[in-house]
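Sequence decides. Consider this:

===
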Amino acid sequence: MAWYSNSTSEKKKVKKDLWIRCSKCGSHVFISNWKENLNVCPQCNYHGSITSWERISQTFDDNSFKELFSNISPVDSLKFIDLNGSYHSKIESNIKKTGINEAVITGYGKINGIDAVTAIMDFRFLGGSLGSGTGEKILLASNFAYDNSFPYIVFSASGGARMQEGTLSLMQMAKTCAGVARLKQKKIPYISVLTNPTTGGVSASYAMVGDLNIAEPGALIGFAGRRVIEQTIGEKLPDDFQTSEYLLEHGFVDTIVERKDMKDYLSKVLGYYNR
């Protein structure tokens, strides 16, 4: 018997274990290289998705981050059921799949020695959707920043409001905006970092009202989808419409920062506020 196997299933497994395919340019990149490059394609600079914990490890000093409000999880107030099953079962499967209880992780730590509070959304959890638990954690984190006079940084990655919760999800837009607006009373900086994608109710609320709005390169940022807008206005939109670069050109974001530079950029900004 041959010492190797040429079965289709094993070949696919080997390929999957070795490399990842960039969803933008189609290049095949060794997974080790992909991870070393912070999930950014070395060929086209496409910024791929990362988990909230990966974002924390890239942004905060080693062993400095302390999680807050980890006990908060979604509540199925409406007992929602659709053709794909119950909302309750989706919650349970997402908690099991991701290892987190909500679409955002909140906490505080040090960025190059500077204290900061953060809320980092995770697109793996129900598409990073904004539910009542998500909004509650973002609000409580803003209150913690207020009480301790720490700057507040939110990393957004979301498909929008979580419609399985109905009006409760839409209420989070005003609730979170009220929380970050309160920081102005003590002149505490609120920095919003928009990553791919930031859409729907999140883009229409706290993601776009930072004292400084930062975007990662090539991120999809917008409210309604391209097709909806084109059908509404009866016009063809530019190819780069709703990208970070388009929004920067039109004044909706302040700057674009690559992932590898994000930690140092944030610490420089926070250092300015701390003078």
